[in-house]
Model the fold of this input.
Amino acid sequence: MKIQLSKLSRTTARYTEEYKQEALELWRASGRSAAKVAAELGIRPPLLYRWASLERGPNGPKAEHKPRRSVEELEAEIRRLRAENAKLLEQREVLKKSLGILSEAPPRGMPESTK
Done:
């Protein structure tokens, strides 16, 4: 005997603005992931993200751009980074040499360490 299952009707849930605000406040204040908060509320995590992005609006934090830096500022930054890179390369070479010296066996005339 076959049992025919009826398809569930897809209805879009409607949430009040107050509910959305409370859900977002709960998510932000709890410090937990959107998935955990959404599971408690019985909704899907992308819904929380969508409500948060709608709340921010088109001019939210992601839409802000940093002011462009001048050519002089960029050149100064490049000079600083090159100097730092040269210093790091020099330190690396010193460390490589010291590792080689420390890993060598002591000469025959010198006593060995008794650690």
User: Anything to note?
Assistant: The two ends are 83 Å apart (CA to CA).
